[in-house]
């Protein structure tokens, strides 16, 4: 059997491989607050040099650092789209949500940025806050509806007008940005976020707790300016809610409907 002649092999043309070339124009430098109370005597910072990614949020950048470069970096976050409020941090000194803040808009002329926890004095680890006092304040304002004694057997529907009376307060996702913007000392005074929660139930027509306004007013005066407490990613305006609470006359049930 005559062996079959093999034809000449054709040269295979491959597309050139383009790899990332480190350089000043392609890199960003993120200086991040680091502190583990169980190991560190004092807080420190660490600067991570990373490739810039188009359209990347700060939360995505932190995730990239953690999963590819430093697994010890700790921060909070869940939804990635501003719904849960868990990723509150400070970027270049400004309280914000990491998942709704773009890296590109946070870089300075030297492609650097600074990332810190909302409150350096109450850090669980790195960028994650110790939220013990924060949630204790929510319990202090009794965040539940206390029904009147004769209203336990019927349904409690709300009209659109009654819902509008709450003025977006139920939308609070407890991100703590208002507390940070107002520079609240949670060990000494009630923060704007807790006032918003109290306002939400004080304005609810189904609530029969006549002592709620008195309870909230007992936490005034506060040392911070109410306008500074209006920083809110959901436009709830906590400072304005606090102004309403201050103006109520204790014992006037009609004030609830104004």
UniProtKB/TrEMBL annotation:
Residues 37-121 form the 2Fe-2S ferredoxin-type domain. One of its GO terms (molecular function) is metal ion binding. It comes from the Archaea. Its cofactor is [4Fe-4S] cluster; [2Fe-2S] cluster; [3Fe-4S] cluster. One of its GO terms (biological process) is tricarboxylic acid cycle. Keywords: 4Fe-4S, Iron, Iron-sulfur, Metal-binding, Oxidoreductase. Pathway: Carbohydrate metabolism; tricarboxylic acid cycle. Belongs to the succinate dehydrogenase/fumarate reductase iron-sulfur protein family. NCBIfam families: dhsB. This is 2Fe-2S ferredoxin-type domain-containing protein.
